[in-house]
Model the fold of this input.
Amino acid sequence: MRFANETRLISRQALAVACHDVDVRDVRAMIVGPAETPYQFGFFESLMSPNPYENEPGFENSDDVRMQADYVAKIRHETLRIAVIQRLEEFLNIHPDGTVESFPELEIETHNEYDEPDIEPPFQPFKDLCKRRFLWYYESYLLAVDKAAKDVRENDSFTIMPFEGGGNTMNGKFNYAQLHRRLQLIHSVLHLETDYWAKEGLVLVKKESSVAAGLQLLFDQVSESFRKNDMVTMDIDLDNKNPFVWIMTYFGRPMTNLDGGVFRIKMTISPRFPDEQPRVVFETPIFHHRISKTGIPCYFPKKADDLKSHVEAIVEAIEDTDPPYDPRTLVNIEASKLFWGSTDEKKQYNRQLRRSVQRSTE
Done:
């Protein structure tokens, strides 16, 4: 139990570690690729260097700048294709031809409580983590594709490196237009999956399941807690009386850049929570370095299995005016550059944030 808890703590960082509940000796680790490298925000299971060419034995001190650039170019392309896109497509049942498997039909008469399956599913501890991180870094992926596409010719073959050969060769062609389309499809399917969670929840409510009843009780407790909290002005309601979809209305704290703002936030909860973490979106647009352009907040709950902790972490993320630099939180490229830039850029950031706060009530 202690080992399992410690792996959860590690998983809050860029290095994620998980162990199988039925056998703690089955340990997996995953690294989220460092920002501003060819591996940026990819999902890996090995260490990496900003200049991958120097990882090859005998080429650590190479001064062949052209070869290094060509190697970085195909590493970047394949990082996006394999470590991000292909992995998410497998998780979401997206086929190579772009077709998507339909979500199972939901019927009250046949929809059973969430019992243990007869056949244990594959141990995929980072499946939900990859999905959540994709939503955080979606803009970064698109920008990386568009930027890299300018440096290569579409359908050009990869340059073969002098250390490649004998069955250890990375062949392929640059096809960034296709990667762009695949990223967009993954993003759309993730939102369809989130909507499906809400539908699952309504079915469980109609079945009067213990999962739905327990979540309703938890909602009552959390909403009452914030109603009595004088430090944070936050109203929490249910969407369509569905305890799996919480609608939070956040009122900006007085005497801050958020003063006067009113923001609607939707949190959709999976029936398999906490194995699948909630998905949160700011439905009211806001210019903020911790909130992506698509409205996805980057936050870190102190207790991943506690929904109140999730709500508190969302508030903390948007109210913190002097956080330590953390490359994991670069989910809004434009806002982050201004927030972490010069004094004048920080002033520009504050002006744009204030404008978005003012627009929130228009």
